[in-house]
């Protein structure tokens, strides 16, 4: 019905958008199936002084609804050439009619970019894509599910993907930052990833961005922790995989200068001595970037341990005890960390560290071997543990008074070096070097002539603290 100042029927189409990061729940789909809205346009009342004007009511023509239906159907079938004309008409004539103009519009414009034959055409379509996001914010920025911060995240992603001749992608930084800050744990994982990647690139181009980059990393890391803790979120599994990758990016960036970290986190530690979550994040960050000699790190670790002893806080206290040359305390804390750790890899590392301390600092080789063997129980392919045991054996000639028998320690030492490279190819070079070095000290033929029990190929028991059998050669 088309008459002046009468009812205007607003037709909506069934919308289902499958664009990136705009997935709808079953409930959303159900609600949209009958999404035909009737809106009454009240005839304008006579102007009355002192009474505010009624807000403008959006009128959507039948032609606009037809265009929406046409481009939506075509885009759903990836027939973007057919979708372009009706989409352009709807975008121009009724930009506030429906979100589908923007969700499908993103697909249509991305396709149009792929069809551009020259740089001028590409730039024109690219600008249209960027402006489209501004218009979406204008008309749908208050949408409960996909608000302005979410829209800015998509805009940033598309800028990074499609902007030519811009390596740093700096314009996307602010959009992505606002998105991350606004969406929090509801952020799309790609937005978190690209935000930190862009920040990393800005730091590489300009070292003065270091503090911002560290702050960005801390922010993203905390959000990922929230997502990981909330198993109900659809992004939970992806966050578990993404976090270590971003930690690696950050650790390799060189931005994490320990002095800068201390300036950033000293006050935070002092103000959060009873906040487990804050302290955990700080301790983890310092460990990742190897700033474990810092007093700020130590203060955070002590406070965290008092709240709730954990493997990480115990290991942090062990590190600081070692730094202070309180070696027995360090060993005790690493033992505590081993008990509290949930990862066999971590348990193996803590026990191997104790083996090194017992050997190098406490001069207790039998205890060091015990710790090395403990490490191997948790990680059988820990070649470093075998190298350590072999090195200790090679330095134990004193267990025999007879100088020829004393050389038997080199046999058992080489046994361990051979075992090390068998279980762990990563230590093969070190193992081969040790084998060459200590094989030169094997008993000679003349030595064995006076020691018939050392005949080549026969078994020999090396006593003392070693207490292992080997093969004479």
Explained architecture:
- With 473 residues, the protein is mainly alpha-helical.
- It contains 22 helices and 2 strands.
- It has a two-stranded antiparallel sheet with strand order 1-2.
- Helix 4 (100-115) packs antiparallel against helix 5 (119-140) and helix 12 (276-288) packs across helix 13 (295-307).
Observed structural traits:
473 residues; two-stranded antiparallel sheet; 2 strands; 64% helix; elongated; disordered N terminus
Topology:
Blueprint: H1 26-32, H2 62-76, H3 80-93, H4 100-115, H5 119-140, H6 148-162, H7 170-183, H8 189-205, H9 210-229, H10 236-253, H11 258-271, H12 276-288, H13 295-307, H14 311-323, H15 327-340, H16 344-360, H17 365-378, H18 383-394, H19 403-406, H20 408-423, H21 428-439, H22 445-449, E1 459-462, E2 468-471
Antiparallel strand pairs: 1-2
Helix pairs in contact: 2-3, 2-4, 3-4, 4-5, 5-6, 6-7, 6-8, 7-8, 8-9, 8-10, 9-10, 11-12, 11-13, 12-13, 13-14, 14-15, 15-16, 16-17, 16-18, 17-18, 18-20, 20-21
Approximately how much helix is present in the residues?
Answer: 55-70%
Spell the H/E element sequence.
Answer: HHHHHHHHHHHHHHHHHHHHHHEE
Total number of strands: 2
State the major sheet. Answer: 2 strands, antiparallel
By DSSP (H or I, 4+ residues per run), the number of helices equals 22
| Beta-strand residue percentage | under 5%
| Mean pLDDT across every amino acid position | 86
> Between the first and last Cα atoms, what is the distance in angstroms?
105 Å
Query: Rounded to an integer, what's the Rg over CA atoms?
Result: 34 Å
């Amino acid at each position: 019905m088309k008459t002046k100042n009468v009812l205007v029927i607003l037709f909506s189409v069934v919308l289902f958008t499958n664009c990136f990061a705009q997935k709808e729940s079953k409930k959303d789909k159900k609600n949209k199936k009958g999404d035909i809205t009737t809106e009454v346009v009240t005839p304008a009342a006579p102007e009355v002084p002192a009474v505010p004007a009624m807000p403008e009511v959006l009128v959507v023509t039948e032609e606009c609804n037809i265009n929406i239906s046409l481009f939506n159907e075509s885009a759903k079938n990836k027939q973007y050439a057919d979708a372009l004309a009706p989409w352009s008409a709807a975008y121009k004539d009724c930009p506030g009619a429906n979100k589908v103009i923007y969700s499908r519009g993103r697909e249509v414009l991305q396709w149009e970019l792929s069809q551009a034959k020259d740089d001028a055409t590409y730039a024109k379509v690219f600008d249209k894509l960027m402006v489209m996001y501004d218009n979406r914010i204008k008309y749908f920025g208050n949408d409960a599910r996909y608000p302005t911060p979410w829209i800015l995240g998509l805009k940033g992603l598309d800028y990074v993907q499609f902007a030519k001749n811009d390596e740093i992608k700096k314009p996307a930084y602010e959009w992505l930052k606002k998105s991350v800050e606004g969406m929090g744990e509801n952020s799309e994982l790609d937005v978190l990833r690209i935000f930190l990647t862009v920040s990393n690139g800005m730091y590489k181009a300009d070292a003065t961005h270091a503090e911002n980059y560290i702050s960005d990393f801390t922010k993203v890391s905390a959000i990922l922790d929230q997502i990981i803790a909330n198993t109900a979120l659809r992004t939970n599994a992806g966050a578990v995989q993404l976090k270590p990758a971003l930690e690696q990016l950050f650790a390799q960036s060189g931005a994490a200068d320990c002095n800068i970290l201390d300036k950033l986190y000293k006050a935070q530690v002092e103000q959060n001595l009873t906040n487990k979550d804050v302290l955990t994040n700080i301790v983890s960050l310092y460990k990742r970037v190897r700033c474990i000699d810092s007093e700020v790190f130590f203060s955070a670790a002590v406070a965290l341990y008092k709240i709730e002893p954990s493997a990480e806080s115990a290991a942090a206290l062990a590190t600081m005890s070692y730094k202070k040359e309180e070696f027995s305390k360090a060993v005790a804390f690493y033992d505590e960390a081993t008990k509290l750790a949930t990862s066999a890899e971590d348990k193996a590392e803590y026990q191997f560290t104790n083996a090194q301390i017992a050997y190098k600092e406490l001069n207790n080789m039998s205890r060091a071997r015990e710790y090395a063997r403990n490490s191997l129980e948790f990680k059988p392919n820990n070649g470093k543990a075998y190298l350590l045991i072999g090195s200790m054996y090679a330095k134990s000639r004193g267990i025999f008074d007879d100088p020829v028998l004393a050389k038997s320690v080199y046999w058992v030492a080489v046994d361990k070096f051979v075992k090390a490279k068998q279980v762990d190819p990563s230590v093969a070079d070190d193992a081969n070097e040790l084998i060459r070095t200590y094989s030169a000290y094997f008993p000679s033929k003349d030595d064995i002539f006076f020691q018939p029990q050392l005949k080549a190929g026969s078994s020999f028991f090396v006593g003392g603290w070693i207490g292992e059998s080997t093969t004479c050669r």
